[in-house]
Q: What sequence folds into this?
């Protein structure tokens, strides 16, 4: 069962924040964050603020979200300060961490200058991939280092959802009649592109072609400060991955609505970042539709009982039936875009 950290209650969070930050806390307020964790804003008595992040724990997910995120921002604070929140302190036993509070606004509509900022950050991460100490960082959460890895992730998510269809007729119809035929097309296309490039669909790319990636990279995980600078947040899935996955995720992420011209601008800019990688373009072309299908299935996570409990814990849940209908509609729209991309023989529509 998903839960708050053991032996810790909401009234204790102010004391934990004070200890981690070594400052007296005058007030603490719950703010809406992501769909998996709780976030509190600690207001210090001497001025300033911190974000206290409480990482949800549940038996079905063994990923070390806290360790990945705190390790990532600590690494970035040393080698690329200003791109991510500064780490203040961590309590690994209780599953909490404190970070500098970033004052600003969420990015609802991005500009080409914002896109350039994201490209620049990806470039910094790629350069840091060759720095001393980078090798100690873990793989990204669910990395995609081969075509078969992408396929396996899609199939694994598909099987989890198909286990529910006895009680979810609409979901079952969508998966069997709509998504599975597109998956067959995407797989055939990916295998063809890999073969044409002289690549093995089943072999992981070598270490020198991998890059450090936020994994959940995009403006949905960014804050625009008052001075216009963008700070990226949420590094729970950070680690080593194929840059082709980073690009495919960025331009297809359902949490952002990038205009077609902006998607092309980002894709072209990131292709320049990874120009040293001679098979990057082929891998991106092959993997993008499969990764798009992966997003279709992630958008259906609200059907999974464990995920819905996390939504409730994070304070982002309301009507479960409405949430499932809404996400199924979004997944259907995303599937249409993937189908169009395959028919047009493009990475994405």
A:
């Amino acid at each position: 069962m998903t839960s708050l950290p053991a032996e810790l209650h909401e009234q204790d969070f102010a004391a934990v924040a004070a200890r981690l930050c070594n400052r007296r806390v005058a007030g603490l307020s719950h703010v809406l964050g992501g769909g998996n964790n709780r976030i509190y804003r600690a207001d210090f008595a001497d001025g300033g603020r911190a974000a206290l992040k409480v990482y949800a724990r549940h038996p079905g997910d063994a990923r070390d979200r806290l360790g990945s995120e705190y390790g990532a921002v600590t690494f970035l604070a040393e080698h690329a300060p200003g791109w991510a929140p500064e780490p203040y302190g961590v309590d690994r036993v209780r599953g909490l961490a404190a970070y500098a509070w970033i004052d600003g606004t969420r990015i609802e509509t991005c500009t080409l200058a914002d896109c350039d900022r994201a490209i620049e950050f990806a470039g910094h991460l790629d350069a840091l991939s060759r720095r001393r100490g980078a090798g100690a960082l873990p793989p990204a959460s669910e990395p995609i280092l081969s075509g078969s890895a992408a396929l396996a992730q899609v199939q694994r998510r598909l099987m989890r959802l198909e286990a529910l269809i006895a009680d979810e007729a609409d979901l079952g119809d969508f998966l069997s009649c709509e998504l599975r035929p597109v998956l067959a097309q995407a797989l055939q296309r990916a295998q063809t592109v890999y073969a044409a490039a002289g690549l093995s669909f089943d072999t992981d790319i070598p270490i020198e072609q991998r890059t450090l990636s936020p994994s959940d990279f995009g403006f949905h995980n960014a804050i625009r400060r008052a001075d216009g600078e963008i700070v990226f947040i949420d590094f729970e899935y950070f680690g080593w991955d194929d840059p082709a996955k980073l690009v495919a995720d960025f331009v297809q992420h359902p949490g952002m609505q990038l205009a077609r011209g902006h998607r092309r601008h980002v894709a072209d800019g990131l292709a320049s970042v990874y120009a040293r990688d001679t098979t990057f373009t082929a891998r991106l072309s092959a993997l993008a539709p499969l990764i798009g299908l992966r997003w279709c299935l992630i958008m259906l996570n609200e059907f999974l009982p464990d995920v819905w409990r996390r939504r409730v814990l994070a304070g982002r849940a309301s009507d479960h039936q409405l949430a499932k209908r809404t996400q199924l509609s979004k997944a259907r729209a995303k599937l249409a875009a993937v189908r169009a991309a395959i028919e047009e023989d493009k990475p994405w529509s």
Notes: The first strand starts at residue 25 and ends at 31. The chain has ten helices and ten strands. The CA atoms of residues 115 and 265 lie 8 Å apart.
